[in-house]
Design a protein that fits this description.
This protein is of the alpha+beta class. The protein folds into two domains: about 35 residues, no CATH class; about 240 residues, 4-Layer Sandwich (Deoxyribonuclease I, Chain A), CATH 3.60.10. The chain is about 20% helix and about 35% strand. The protein has five helices and 17 strands. The strands form four sheets. The chain has a seven-stranded mixed beta sheet with strand order 3-6-7-5-4-17-16, covered by helices on one side. Strands 8-9-10-11-15-12 form a six-stranded mixed beta sheet. Strand 1 and strand 2 form a beta hairpin. About 40% of the residues are buried.
């Protein structure tokens, strides 16, 4: 699939293809000379040259369709209710390479985040997910997408107080052009008092792939769960730091029948250039009642975003 931006969008998507590249040329002393014939360089050779020139290591990605996969259940037997809840609370948090797990647990254990029914997490490794699930008494599923620069796995997780009856990962197009780092979404079917809800922990690429690439990634997620049931919640880090990207991302989800459930919460990340709105919750088939951002320390530059939905839907 490919995306073209709306006519009023001031930042067009960057789209490149090796077969469409013209040779780079330059002039010196009035003589025209070829600097690089990209059409004569194999993709592997070009990647090796870029690695040497930029010093960017190539990421180790997990391309298998089914794994690696990690799961566990730390719910206390007999304490979980089977009756329908009066509402459903969903939290999303990018924990920034899963380095400050203690702070994240403290944040997730304090109102308004405490008692959340489902927690979507990004930039996680398996030990961090398991520790959080154990401390909070939740079941979980985790898939890494790649190995991060610190040598730990880097991926997405869904944690739940309700049973997870099925799960899988969705591979996203447009790897990082410098590191070739891959991104995924993790889908978990959560049975809330017997009603299945598709919960998706998403983490699209940084602006280096261009807005068009990130819109392709978001639509790949939507397409991946389109026929899985009427109740769907997609939450995570959509990296909308560049001008116009928030509006285009929200417009895409709206056109596909989703509500911006976390609308109006404001900036979700602290950065050197100020606050940025990067984290979102989108829903279909469930109605948001309240939403917010918990701006206390959660062990990350991202702040947890939470939405309370009406239940039954």
């Amino acid at each position: 699939m490919s995306w073209s931006l709306e006519p009023d969008e001031p930042y067009p998507a960057t789209r490149t293809s090796g077969s469409e590249q013209a040779p780079l040329t330059g002039t010196r002393g009035g003589r025209h000379r070829s600097l690089l014939r990209l059409d004569l360089v194999t993709p592997c050779a070009l990647l090796a040259v870029l690695t040497l020139l930029t010093g960017c290591p190539i990421a180790e990605n997990y391309s298998d369709e089914t794994g690696p996969r990690y799961t566990g259940d730390y719910r206390v037997p007999g304490t979980g209710s089977t009756a329908a809840p009066s509402s459903l609370t969903v939290v999303t948090l990018n924990l920034s390479f899963a380095e400050h797990v203690t702070e994240a647990i403290a944040s997730l254990s304090t109102a308004p985040l405490s008692g959340a029914d489902v927690i979507m997490m990004q930039e996680m490794d398996a030990p961090a997910v398991e520790r959080i699930a154990q401390e909070l008494g939740m079941t979980y599923v985790y898939y890494p997408a790649s190995v991060a620069v610190d040598g730990d796995d880097f991926g997405n997780a869904v944690l739940s107080r309700w049973p997870i009856t099925a799960d899988r990962k969705i591979h996203l197009p447009h790897d990082d052009p410098y590191h070739q780092q891959h991104r995924i979404a993790v889908v978990a079917t959560v049975e809330v008092a017997g009603t299945p809800v598709q919960m998706v922990s998403a983490h699209t690429a940084t602006p280096i792939v261009g807005l068009g690439g990130r819109l392709d990634q978001a639509e790949t997620i939507i397409d991946g769960i389109d026929a899985t049931g009427p109740l769907q919640i997609i939450a995570g880090d959509f990296n909308t730091s560049d001008p116009g990207s928030q509006g285009q991302t929200v417009k895409l989800f709206s056109k596909r029948g989703y509500q911006w459930a976390s609308e109006g919460v404001g900036d979700t990340v602290d950065s050197v250039i100020g606050g940025l709105p990067l984290d979102y919750v989108f829903s279909r088939g469930v109605t948001p009642l309240e939403r917010g951002v918990d701006r206390r320390d959660a062990g990350s530059d991202h702040h947890p975003v939470w939405v309370r939905f009406a239940w039954p839907p």
